[in-house]
User: What shape does this take?
Amino acid sequence: MHQGKVIFPQEPWTITETEVNLAHNQRCETVFAVANGYIGMRGNTEEGYSGPEGYSLNGTYLNGFYDSTPIQYGEEAFGYAKNRQTMLNVADAKGISLWVDGEKFDVLQSKIIDYKRQLHMKQGVMTREIVWETRQGKQVELRIERMASFVNKHMALIRYEAKVRSAAAQMEFVSTLNGEVTNQVTMGDPRTGSGFAGQVLLTEGLRADGAIHGTAQRTKNTKFVLVSAVNHALNVEHESACHEQGQLIELRYRCEAAPDQAVVLDKYIAYFASKDYEEAELWPMAVTALTDAKAKGYNWFRERQEEILADFWQVADVSVEGDELLQQGLRFNAYHLFQSVGRDGKTNIGAKGITGEGYEGHYFWDTETYILPFFLYNRPEISRQLLKYRHSILPKAKARAAELGYEGALYAWRTIDGEETSPYYPAGSAQLHINADIAYAVKKYVEVTRDEDYLLQEGLDILVETCRFFADAGDWIEGKGFCINGVTGPDEYTAMVNNNAYTNLMVKDQFEFTVKSLRKLEQTAAWQGVQARYGLEERELEAWTTMAEQMYIHRVGQLIGQDDSFLEKAPWDFANTPREKYPLLLHFHPMVIYKYQVLKQADLVLAMYLQGHRFTREEKVVNYKYYEPLTTHDSSLSASIYAIVGAELGEIEKAYQYFMQSARMDLDDYHNNVKDGIHSASMAGSWLTIVNGFAGMRHDEEVITFNPTIPSAWTSYTFRVLFHGSLVEVSVTKEQTTYRLIEGCPVELRHGEQSFMLESERVCEISKS
Ligand code: BGC
Assistant: This one.
């Protein structure tokens, strides 16, 4: 079952576009983006864009590289976020134009005989293969390949190959580095646009060292410095020249091409920023990197790219027999996650990756709740780096808590460098649950990897400070217990409520885990140090324990209120809301939305997934039934969670339908906004649905449990997970599940009620209940 439109042909490892479609050009610029966790280049054409305005967004971004500007409020209040942060569009190094016998190639203007643009998910490159007929009737074969290097985060490469069929020709390549770039401006959709109207990455000068040319730029407000530089290699005898014009560097390579001779221009691109290194080092580092890269050659990078991806796919690939379209969607999602995720401990993963300007390159709870769990089971070291980033911004979270008059730390709802940047608090910074989401990720990381050292080095810092925050921000209310009032839960269509059940259950969990971890340490030699580090006292641990025990949840029989007042509201009039009024946030004032029972996304149902052991099965059934019809899924974070819990409750076909909404959401552009960038949380959600949903994987400290089911449309599915350092493969068919130990020590597994030690292979029946 697919959602109707299928945009790209069904292929296992590639995404292919066979004709230029202007109307969907921006969407394709996102789909064909290449990135390496640091550099993100949209799939723009090398020759530039010559079509009508508004159909292309030329973008290159660096994860975490931003400028900020004060937020202009009509009416300010104490503690509002002060500054906006926007990931910047940086110097454009993608430009290469080819002139054959004096005629410029332009995919929109030239006569095109054959056209193909492809994303290669095993090779880690984007290619364009085009046959162009010049006005003189010469046919020119072009093959252009682009990558953001996985082996060196500072490097991107382009190989531009041109061959004239059966004729000699004069060729000129004009390769550019253009410092004059700006970001998009706000267009009325809260999810897109920046606060900047003009150029804020200001060019301070052009640089050259032999054949290497570059720009040095500084951000207007943050004063970060960026050096962008290029180096080239051409495989035939040629003449070259350099022209500098304002902020533009143009390198021209002229040669005579023999008939059918492949002329190949390799362009090596480097970005070095002062967020990573001292200002004075940037240019020398760029020169060294580019010299070294040219000496290694393009193919060296190409080979490394493929090897790194082979390692990734060896664990992360999920295969589904019986649905090729789905297979492609799942790979596309995993691939984009891998290329978008920051893995240097200083950056994170944006809601839109580094593929577009939606949400300004900000990091949200999307990381800990959706994306980090994806990497946890295939590349735990990436999850560790994501947590390291959170640790690095802990001082800012502490400052934010102090600013609001609280103890401990409060993480920013949306941010790049740790400072709160959400200008709209009801559906933004009031989502205190982000603290508990981060704490939950710390717990899961420790449980899955058994990396206890991490707790001592960094994890406890996060746990203790976020617990202190909640202990201070919560209130004891007579007749209720420990309450966390005046917050917004994950559902952004219900704001500023008391006792959001999701938040309270997640905080209860973090209190329990923190106290348990500390109690364990009490018995060890490390305890004195830990106690001294945090100034911990026994009564603090006791207080957290009591708060956890008496955490208030609003219940009416089996029904659990999303918060204290939710069940008293009138239901939204769904019957009279036409399709074009969705997403509601673009058509109704928040005041209208907030007063009804209507959800943007999974909230209590998300708690039923992450805190499943705290609900009876009956409660899950009753509450799923209650909240599902009230949920619009206007957020892309929603469908996968309803799929996971639906699968747990035996609603396999319903789960499958929800799953299909997230599996190809971006590839088929269901939300019509892929032009602004990928939906990274939803992409991860599709993996979570297979593993936590259909295969029913859950785990605690010791054991990993599966409760596999299979949608009727599939013959089988197979995936791998790393648990306690052992690699386990799970293969589910309609009749049975096969568990295989691929690498590492035997692990304890549970298949439904059946427990066993997996030593090599074990086949279990699928329960038909
Ligand atoms: C969702 C949030 C999410 C944000 C970024 C919003 O539409 O409601 O939960 O964090 O998008 O993806």
Notes: The mean pLDDT is 96.
